[in-house]
Inverse folding.
């Protein structure tokens, strides 16, 4: 049992290190446009990210409403941004509540049912290495949301964060798309 726990810890730490390295690589790309821009189905990118989140977040249900949308962009970078939003939502979600994901012509909306975002943190949460009051005690590098903003802007879009009126946080990744 002790060996299994040790191995599980090593795997978890290796995965966290891998995520950190990937975050640093993404941030180092700066504001350069994605190399390969293609017409991609945003709903398919999000569908793959939702499946990944469901595999990794065993105790959180992810409810998705995915309408067909085509955007011009890099599937790899958009996938990274959506994965970051979903990871963030699962991390901050209250147990037993679903994370909600919607895709439509306006982009991607991810909502959790956690404690929300401290209003003092809202202006800074997309800054590199910023960790809000609700995040400091949790794992993370403070790069995930900065990457989301970077990817959104490199695709001619934007990202917004707000608190839902009945609790939790809502992140909206706006991308120019067509149904």
């Amino acid at each position: 049992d002790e060996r299994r726990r040790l191995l599980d810890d090593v795997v978890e730490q290796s995965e966290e290190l891998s995520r950190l390295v990937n975050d640093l690589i993404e941030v180092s790309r700066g504001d350069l446009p994605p190399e390969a821009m293609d017409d991609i189905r945003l709903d398919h990118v999000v569908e793959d990210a939702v499946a990944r989140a469901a595999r990794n977040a065993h105790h959180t249900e992810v409810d998705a409403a995915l309408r067909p949308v085509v955007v011009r962009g890099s599937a790899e970078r958009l996938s990274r941004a959506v994965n970051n939003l979903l990871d963030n939502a699962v991390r901050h979600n209250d147990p037993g509540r679903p994370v909600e994901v919607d895709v439509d012509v306006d982009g991607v909306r991810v909502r959790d049912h956690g404690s929300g975002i401290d209003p003092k943190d809202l202006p800074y949460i997309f800054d590199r290495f910023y960790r809000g009051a609700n995040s400091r005690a949790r794992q993370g590098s403070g790069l995930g949301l900065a990457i989301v903003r970077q990817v959104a802007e490199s695709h001619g879009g934007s990202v917004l964060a707000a608190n839902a009126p009945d609790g939790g946080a809502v992140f909206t990744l706006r991308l120019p798309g067509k149904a």
User: Anything to note?
Assistant: The chain has a mean pLDDT of 85. Strands lie at 38-41, 62-66, 70-73, 99-104, 107-111, 158-163, 169-174, 177-178. The chain has four helices and eight strands. Helices lie at 2-28, 42-56, 75-92, 144-154.
